[in-house]
Inverse folding.
């Protein structure tokens, strides 16, 4: 219990110091449809993800995470008395209050990715969301696309198709030059128009456009989106850890759970093919 | 030796040339086609813009040849291969106005200066809407519209709000038939679009465009804005070859069905080849009907005594057939504005009709009942070919077409009438040739049109009946063991007109003047057939030889006044008809001149609301066949026309109210028609225990009718749609039965609610139809109800879908009640990796023997039982490619 408290305290303290609001240039939501049974081809979801862009940087994560983080930010503004706990009792009280309040509106973040695209430095950072201490993959932002001859209308937008390979998979994207945003879901970008839909050749992972907002507006913006203490790991390590997490899930170091909880987690992760999106 | 060496050298050089020449050619081609373009993208202050998208295309909406994104320094570079002299370059950025340039030649550097602009999303649906509007065009996203059970594009079209797909395949948009059906802008099928909507797979279609108020003739663009819409299908790829082949078999009796179709769509040409054969009751040849033209029921002068199937029951439960059909359609764009089309199809069928009919004739004094056991076999063959050339330019339009159709039908009838054998042999041969030519010349706001048509029709009919009774024919009642009637008809029609269209602001005038000629030659002869096979004519009372000639110059004036909320229309047609009718047997003739006019005033709202139409016409039955003597139109039924013109005057008022609310999903349409018709002649009928005869008598009479139709559609919740149609008709008409003058009053009312409820992966629909018929000369009113349940369910995990339909028909005539039930089940599954569709049909599961219908005419009522196909199991596999 003490370790759980410690984890909460760490994350709570982090919330207190690292939150901000920023004007984003565009906010685009996608539905993520991952496979949950590869033998039968059963698809899961959809899970809503959000693509935000500000100051030459794009971020992609679950809409639920955005919601939870922004509500935490609102909580902090509304409860400044818990901002600086001096004693363990005060910290305990702050955590209890926060937990009680959060329970009312906290949304599930079961399926999540954290991807940061830095268009200036031309690099992608992809956090290993379950890892503790934090770790992330860092790769150059440099996609090679082949434009296809097919055209289609998806979500009301006139689209062209394009092909690329990434992380061991071949992808087909549909992009719309009518929306001049050279960005897309997850790590994908670099086409002369917004990526409206993208899926791998097996149809296991699909991102599909849900809504677009291109008028600049304020959004919650985590200053330290990728933890500054996060360690850069190799693709092999990223993929191996992901496979391990799917097949034999573990809680972050320091967080203890019962065998029963672990078994339940293992059962749930059997269908968590979303963890296998990255490959060699 | 030198020459030898020389030869060796020259050979070596020659060999080198063989290699060098293609290499040089290849290098030259590569050098000529490939180009690298670079430059810088800056804002108005000269600061570099990063992340701008640069795209190069051969055409503005064509394929992308290459693209680049500008770097942080604003610089970009892209390499592309082009085969044309000019290219389109576009640059776009979320914070700057997009720019487009067409460049001739192959520039090496192109710099761009973008102007800051707040980006606004184009008129698109960003929240998963299935439809967007671009001006007068509605674009429906097929990906979002299609569901698991949709196979062909008709399934998707039927679900688009405002579109109705009739059982014939005809498509209406907002209650008006569509004027054109394009695929990638080309109208290959020329009205036979059911071939596409029922065969073209939905997964090759990208968008469905509805072009509202579509004017297909460029020369009339902005001059005439028709109320009808057109449909254009946009494909996922500019070049598509698609098709499917399927075959199936079943039991009770041995059943088969096989079909194959190929569609090819290229930039400049499209084609389609189809072939089908089945004995499961599908009438595929009806898909070759042109749906641009109104439904014209072919008027057959003489017909065999065959029980007719009801249209209310699915054809797979009714038609006992052996149909083979094949067709080809081809269109080629000869130039950007001209095209050539060719269409042809052939069909053959063997049909069987079986059933029982009880027809009761009744007047105030007597009642005659015919109990008929009807059984017929019909063999038909049909061959049709059509060629069309069209030039459609803004300044000039011309279209020429020729269509020819040859058909023959042979029917063998084996009936029992009131327990007496009655046999018939019927043979009909027909030939139709239609030629059309049209030209329109546009000059400014004026357009001139010249239009011409020639139609030729020839028909020969033989009806042999065994036995024949002469009844009500002003001849002594007689019976012949065997008799044959031979009919021959030739019709030649030509029509040529010129028209002039002008537009002045909101005022449009259309003036049309022309001349029509119609020549008809009609002969008939009823003869006794002796045992030896010799024919002895029954004499002039049953012989006709009439020639009709009509010259009709005419003038039509149409005026339209377009207002902000609607349009006023005045139609003023007037014609002079010069008739010359010669009876070559009786040596009599009729020559008469008649003025025919039909003015009409109409108000049409631009988008829903109230519309009205008033029509007055002074006319006569222009298609009437004049003959003096009796004609056996069907066994035991003689008919005679008068050798005079039956003139009519008609007043008709039509009021319509139409509205919709996109927010609540409510659509309603109410139409009221009132009419009164006065005619010079009155139909008169006589009957006795052997048959009936009808003719016209000179007696002025007035028929009045009123009709009120309502359609009401609402979607109260996203999962429920309710549609209600009501129709009430009242007719007051005079009649003459067995020399008694009657005043017939008929009330007929129909209510048809339709509810669709979708839940989970299931759809449940219920259609109920209640019909009430009452006539002042019938003893009891008639109630007919039909209840149709359809349940559809999509199984999870690629286990396919099931469609279950149950029909319950109930007819009550006084105390007498007749009930029919039909249960059909269809299971369907697809194996996407094999592109295979599997369908299993279980038809008429309750094994109902007959389908019973009740009809009432002015003087008789009829209860008929049509023999249904028995319980049947059928498995069909279809492979897409």
């Amino acid at each position: 219990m003490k370790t759980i408290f410690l984890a909460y305290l760490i994350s709570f303290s982090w919330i207190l110091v690292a939150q901000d609001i920023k004007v984003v240039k565009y906010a685009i939501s996608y539905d993520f449809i991952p496979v949950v049974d590869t033998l039968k081809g059963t698809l899961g979801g959809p899970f809503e993800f959000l693509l935000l862009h500000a100051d030459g940087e794009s971020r992609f994560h679950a809409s639920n995470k955005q919601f939870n983080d922004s509500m935490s930010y609102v909580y902090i503004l509304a409860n400044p008395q818990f901002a600086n706990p001096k004693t363990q009792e005060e910290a305990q009280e702050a955590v209890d209050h926060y937990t009680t309040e959060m329970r009312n509106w906290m949304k599930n973040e079961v399926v999540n990715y954290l991807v940061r695209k830095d268009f200036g430095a031309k690099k992608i950072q992809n956090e290993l969301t379950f890892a503790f201490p934090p770790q992330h993959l860092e790769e150059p932002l440099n996609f090679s696309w082949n434009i296809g001859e097919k055209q289609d209308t998806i979500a009301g937008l006139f689209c062209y198709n394009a092909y690329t390979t990434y992380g061991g998979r071949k992808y087909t994207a549909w992009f719309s030059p009518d929306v001049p945003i050279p960005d897309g879901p997850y790590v994908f970008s670099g086409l002369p128009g917004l990526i409206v839909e993208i899926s791998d050749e097996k149809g296991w992972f699909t991102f599909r456009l849900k809504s677009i907002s291109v008028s600049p507006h304020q959004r919650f913006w985590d200053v330290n989106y990728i933890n500054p203490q996060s360690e850069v790991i190799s693709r092999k390590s990223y993929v191996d850890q992901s496979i391990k997490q799917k097949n034999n899930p573990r809680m972050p170091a320091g967080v203890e759970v019962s065998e029963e909880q672990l078994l339940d987690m293992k059962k749930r992760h059997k269908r968590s093919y979303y963890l296998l999106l990255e490959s060699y | 030796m030198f020459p030898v060496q020389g030869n060796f050298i020259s050979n070596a050089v020659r060999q080198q040339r063989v290699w060098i020449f293609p290499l040089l050619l290849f290098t030259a081609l590569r050098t000529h086609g490939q180009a690298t373009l670079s430059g810088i993208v800056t804002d108005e202050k000269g600061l570099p813009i990063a992340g701008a998208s640069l795209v190069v295309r051969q055409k503005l909406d064509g394929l992308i040849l290459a693209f680049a994104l500008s770097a942080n320094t604003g610089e970009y570079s892209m390499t592309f291969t082009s085969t044309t002299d000019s290219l389109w370059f576009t640059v776009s950025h979320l914070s700057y106005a997009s720019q487009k340039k067409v460049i001739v030649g192959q520039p090496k550097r192109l710099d761009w200066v973008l102007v800051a602009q707040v980006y606004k999303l184009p008129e698109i649906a960003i929240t998963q809407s299935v439809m967007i509007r671009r001006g007068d065009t509605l674009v429906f996203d097929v990906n979002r519209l299609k569901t698991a059970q949709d196979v062909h594009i008709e399934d998707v079209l039927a679900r688009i709000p405002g579109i109705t797909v009739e059982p014939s395949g005809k498509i209406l948009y907002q209650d008006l038939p569509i004027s054109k059906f394009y695929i990638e802008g080309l109208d290959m099928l020329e009205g036979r679009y059911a071939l596409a909507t029922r065969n073209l797979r939905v997964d090759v279609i990208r968008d469905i465009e509805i072009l509202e108020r579509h004017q297909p003739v460029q020369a009339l663009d902005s001059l005439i804005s028709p109320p009808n819409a057109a449909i254009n299908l946009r494909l996922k790829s500019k070049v598509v070859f698609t098709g499917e082949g399927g075959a199936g078999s079943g039991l009770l009796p041995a059943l088969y069905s096989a079909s194959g179709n190929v569609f090819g769509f290229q930039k400049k040409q499209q084609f389609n080849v189809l072939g089908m054969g089945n004995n499961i009751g599908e009438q595929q040849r009806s898909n070759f009907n042109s749906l641009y033209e109104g439904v014209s029921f072919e008027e057959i002068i003489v017909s065999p005594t065959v029980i007719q199937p009801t249209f209310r029951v699915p054809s797979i439960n009714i038609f006992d057939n052996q149909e083979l059909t094949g067709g080809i359609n081809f269109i080629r764009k000869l130039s950007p504005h001209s095209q050539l089309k060719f269409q042809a199809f052939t069909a053959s069928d063997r049909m069987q009709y079986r059933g029982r009919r009880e027809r009761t004739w009744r007047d105030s004094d007597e009642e005659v009942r015919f109990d008929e056991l009807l059984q017929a076999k019909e063999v038909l063959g049909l061959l049709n070919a059509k060629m069309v050339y069209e030039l459609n330019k803004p300044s000039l339009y011309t279209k020429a077409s020729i269509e020819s159709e040859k058909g023959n039908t042979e029917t063998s009838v084996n009936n029992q009438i009131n327990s007496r054998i009655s046999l018939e042999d019927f043979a009909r041969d027909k030939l139709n040739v239609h030629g059309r030519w049209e030209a329109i010349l546009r000059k400014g706001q004026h357009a001139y049109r010249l239009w011409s048509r020639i139609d030729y029709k020839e028909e020969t009919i033989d009806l042999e009946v065994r036995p024949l009774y002469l009844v009500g024919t002003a001849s002594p009642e007689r019976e012949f063991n065997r008799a044959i009637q031979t009919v021959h008809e030739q019709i030649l029609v030509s029509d040529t007109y010129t028209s002039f269209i002008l537009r002045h602001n909101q005022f449009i005038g259309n003036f049309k003047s022309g001349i029509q000629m119609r020549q008809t030659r009609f002969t008939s002869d009823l003869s006794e057939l002796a045992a030896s096979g010799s024919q002895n004519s029954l004499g002039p009372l049953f012989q006709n030889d009439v020639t009709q000639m009509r010259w009709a110059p005419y003038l039509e004036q149409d005026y339209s006044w377009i207002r902000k909320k609607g349009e006023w229309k005045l139609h003023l047609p007037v014609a002079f008809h010069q008739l010359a009718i010669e009876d070559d047997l009786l040596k009599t003739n009729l020559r008469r001149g008649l003025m025919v006019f039909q003015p009409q005033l109409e108000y049409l709202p631009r988008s829903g609301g109230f519309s009205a139409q008033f029509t007055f016409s002074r006319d006569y039955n222009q298609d009437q066949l004049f003959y003096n003597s009796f004609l056996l139109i069907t066994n035991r039924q003689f008919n005679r026309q008068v050798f005079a013109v039956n003139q009519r005057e008609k007043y008709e008022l039509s009021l319509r109210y139409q509205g919709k609310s996109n927010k609540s999903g409510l659509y309603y349409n109410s139409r009221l028609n009132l009419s009164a018709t006065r005619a010079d002649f009155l139909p008169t009928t006589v009957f006795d225990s052997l048959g009936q005869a009808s003719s016209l008598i000179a007696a002025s009479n007035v028929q009045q009718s009123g009709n009120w139709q309502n359609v009401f559609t609402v979607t109260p919740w996203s999962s429920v749609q309710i549609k209600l149609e009501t129709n009430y008709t009242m007719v007051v008409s005079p009649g003459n039965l067995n020399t008694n003058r009657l005043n017939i009053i008929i009330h007929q009312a129909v209510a048809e609610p339709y509810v669709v409820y979708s839940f989970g992966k299931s759809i449940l629909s219920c259609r109920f139809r209640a019909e009430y018929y009452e006539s002042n000369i019938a003893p009891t009113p008639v109630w007919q109800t039909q209840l149709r349940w359809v349940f559809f369910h999509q199984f999870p995990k690629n286990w396919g879908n099931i469609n279950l339909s149950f029909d319950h028909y109930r007819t009550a005539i006084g105390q007498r009640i007749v009930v029919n039930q039909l249960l059909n089940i269809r299971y369907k599954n697809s194996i996407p990796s094999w592109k295979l569709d599997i369908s299993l049909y279980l038809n008429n599961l309750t094994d109902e023997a007959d389908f019973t219908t009740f009809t009432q005419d002015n003087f008789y009522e009829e209860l008929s039982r049509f023999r249904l196909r028995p319980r049947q199991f059928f498995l069909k596999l279809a492979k897409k490619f």
